[in-house]
Design a protein that fits this description.
This protein is mainly beta. A five-stranded antiparallel beta sheet has the order 5-8-7-6-37, with helices on one face. Strands 13, 14, 15, 16 and 17 form a five-stranded antiparallel beta sheet that branches. The chain contains eight helices and 37 strands.
Length: 574
């Protein structure tokens, strides 16, 4: 209401979404019936209905191991979906954290047992499937009705639930067979030939799970050679620029001496067990590394001062995050650069203390300088942020905690690395659009045609207080063109860039991702125009997809059923 030019707004907090919508309609009808246009204007400009926050959030974190196959999706409106869409988009994320027993329920959403969801694309036709990965420990846990002995990330909720000595011995035995973990959430990758690919569900453990891209059925575990001992994997394989080769690395260990790093190249003719070793080196520290970068000629590793101590496995009750130590804030992040052509290693180049789960991209700015962009992550987030008790209870809007993002106060950072002198400098990007989201994002993706090359656009997910999620388009060449897309009570996730065939610019393409509509408590497939960074269309899903970290689009994975479905649709339209 107004009083001699002074405007007062009325905030009406309501907990029930349907009540909010009904009240909006009633107020509009009532005011429209009045003869005073000023009152209507005041209503439109001054009264703010405060919708409840975190609507449907807990439903977004509900486990769902249901299996289903090739369900056709329907787009929400008549907006044309790009006719060139093809291939298969696969998401990997937690699907199940309990098995019936009240004991030994997984306490971190991050370590929920992996469920794959796939979207077979053919223009406007989409077929949707979902299936749990049938890893040995998952199958045994389902059969027993309780989590069987294995390595987990976090502790259980009480000391009484911790592994007994006999169960610890079982875990030690599984470590020799390679089945101490076997839960390959959160990423996917392909090695092998395009027409006969080896599709893998991967994490940072040494044994991935192979699956069938057509029906998501589990083929089996892929074990590394028995000696030298393989200590780890890395969830984020990289495609070697200009090739179909895959790049990754392992920590290796002999019976004596310290571990070393082997940088690996998987050519299309290689199996998981037979990669080519590009180079070897002894790292300055046994760091936890979730991703790395490639350029046209180099592989770039950041060895963070977050140290893993595997000798403490037994005393930690076989909980991985209890082995990590990132407390030495005076320690350095050491950079190693490995030549892809001859395996030569340069480094370590020391830089300030830092930790990041994900790199964005890197490229050679000159013969001596490498540019590397990354999304820093507070180390504590790895252990505590994704604990289920924390995720289920986001802080209320307006509190100090609600102003904290997944990156805390850390911003997207650019490293300039002189590989001749070893000098390293860092910088951040200006916030020209005055958005809290734009420089605080994670889960970055780019146009993969620009992997290892000079680029301008990165796409990511920004989250404040867990549930305030926004999609971000970051222009690292001209921050004035940054863009953000946000919808209240919609919970978003990592995007993947699909380049338009024959596109004439880096951002000419479509972004694909999964969202969750809180008020409807329903997941949806979302297509975004990468250039304008606006939605193209959405398709609501008959089965929800809980919070997940990563996905991958496989352009080579096309199926006849998709073409048949498209023909049927075209016939119906005629």
């Amino acid at each position: 209401f107004s009083n001699q030019g002074e405007v007062y707004s009325v905030r009406i907090p309501l907990k029930n979404v349907q009540t909010v919508h009904r009240l909006e309609q009633l107020l509009k009808v009532h005011l429209l019936a009045m003869t005073c246009p000023g009152v209507l204007l005041l209503f439109l400009t001054c009264i703010q209905l405060v919708h409840p926050e975190n609507v449907g959030w807990k439903s977004f974190l509900a486990e769902d191991p249901t299996e289903f196959h090739d369900l056709p999706l329907v787009w929400e409106d008549t907006t044309a979906v790009p006719s060139w869409l093809s291939g298969t988009y696969v998401r990997n994320g937690p699907g199940q954290i309990t098995f019936g027993s009240p004991r030994r329920q997984l306490s971190s959403w991050l370590e929920g047992f992996a469920k794959l969801h796939s979207f077979k694309l053919s223009g406007s036709s989409v077929l949707f499937s979902g299936a749990m990965l049938q890893s040995p420990n998952y199958v045994a846990s389902v059969k027993k009705g309780e989590l069987v002995p294995q390595i987990t990330l976090n502790k259980f909720s009480s000391d009484e639930e911790e592994w007994t000595w006999w169960e610890k011995l079982q875990i030690v035995y599984k470590a020799f067979t390679g089945d101490e973990m076997g839960n390959n959430n959160p990423a996917v990758w392909r090695i092998g030939q395009e027409n006969d690919g080896i599709y893998l569900a991967v994490t940072d453990a040494k044994v991935p799970t192979r699956f069938n891209i057509s029906d998501l059925s589990t083929i089996g575990q892929e074990y590394p050679p028995s000696y030298p001992l393989t200590l780890n994997g890395c969830a984020h394989y990289m495609r070697e620029p200009g090739t179909d080769n895959s790049i990754n690395f392992n920590f290796k260990k002999g019976f004596t001496g310290p571990p070393w790093v082997e940088v690996l190249r998987y050519r299309p003719e290689h199996t998981y067990q037979t990669p080519e070793v590009i180079g070897k080196f002894k790292p300055s520290k046994f760091s936890y590394i979730h991703s790395f970068s490639v350029t046209e000629n180099y592989v770039v590793f950041l060895f963070y001062p977050v140290i893993i101590d595997p000798k403490r496995y037994a005393e930690s009750n076989f909980h991985v995050f209890e082995l990590f130590d990132g407390s030495n804030k005076t320690d350095t992040t050491d950079i190693f650069v490995v030549n892809l052509k001859n395996g030569d290693v340069k480094g370590p180049f020391p830089s300030d203390w830092a930790y990041a789960a994900h790199h964005i991209n890197a490229y050679e700015n000159s013969d001596s300088e490498i540019i590397l962009d990354m999304t820093p992550t507070p180390f504590d987030n790895m252990k505590d942020y994704l604990k289920l008790e924390n995720m289920l209870n986001p802080p209320a809007e307006g509190t100090k905690e609600a102003e904290i993002s997944t990156t805390d106060n850390l911003e997207v950072t650019r490293y300039k690395i002189n590989i001749n002198t070893g000098d390293v400098t860092t910088s951040t990007f200006p916030n020209t659009i005055n958005s809290r989201f734009i420089n605080h994002f994670d889960f970055p993706t780019i146009n993969e045609d620009y992997r290892g090359k000079k680029y301008c656009y990165a796409y990511g997910l920004s989250a404040f207080a867990y549930s305030r999620t926004a999609l971000v388009k970051k222009n690292v060449c001209n921050p004035a063109e940054d863009k953000v897309w946000y919808t209240e009570n919609h919970y978003l996730s990592e995007m993947h860039f699909l380049p338009q065939p024959g596109g004439d610019s880096e951002d000419d393409g479509t972004l694909i991702t999964i969202g969750f509509d809180g008020p409807k408590e329903q997941s949806y497939l979302l297509l975004m125009d990468a250039k304008t960074f606006t939605p193209i269309n959405t398709a609501y899903l008959p089965h929800n997809i809980p919070w997940s970290a990563h996905g991958m689009h496989f352009p080579e994975a096309n199926f006849p059923v998709m073409a048949e479905n498209k023909k049927k649709q075209e016939k119906q339209e005629l």
